[in-house]
Design goal:
With 226 residues, the chain is of the alpha/beta class. The chain has helices at residues 13-26, 44-53, 71-87, 123-134, 160-176, 183-189, 196-208; strands at 4-7, 31-32, 58-63, 90-95, 114-115. A 5-stranded parallel β-sheet has the order 2-1-3-4-5, sandwiched between helices.
Length: 226
Amino acid sequence: MGKTFICYSHQDKERFVQGFYKRLLELGVDVSIDELDIIPGDNFPRKIFEECIDNCENFIIILSKNSINSEWVNEELDAGMVQKIEKGARLIPIIIDDLNIDEVPNRLRHITHHSVNDISNYDTDAKRIANICLGLYEKPEVKPPKVNKSKAGNYPSLSKMDAFVFDTLVDIAMQDDEEYIGVDTLLEKLSGILSYDEIEESLEVLKSTIYINIYRVVYRRNVYAV
């Protein structure tokens, strides 16, 4: 069982986070939130980033009208994305407000989220999240994606970055039911996480290892000098 960290806006603490945190503790999750794990004399940023986030295996982010505009939440989210890419941490977005897809941070739109419909009655939600954090869930049977994938979750020839790009492609194919995925779609999903050059490099690696097929279409336009 790994450690779990909750990233949230302090404006959501009393209305949801504090109670949800305590319920996860009762369900056996080794979970922490910033101010309840900080003691006088601690260096606050160092404690959060070096001890709480760097050591977590599950990174829960509470998405609300408050948190999507919080600079501190976005700083923590960036650190959580690094944990996901470099150490394979599980990122768990939990939506507690009625948000449009455009309001969800770009780097989270390709990740399956959990919505809490009633923040005053979340026991079922807490049990589901606790089971995920404790590794006690069963993966639902899903339609195989239309992407050439040899063995799910097992990429012995790929680096962590290349595996992350491949998983993103699979997520897009499963969610959008697309046979062909444009580079622009991939760039949008990974905006703020990887650079264009890193994505291009990973695509070439995936092509060379026969994980994907790449078809390049060149559009020719007439250029007129005026």
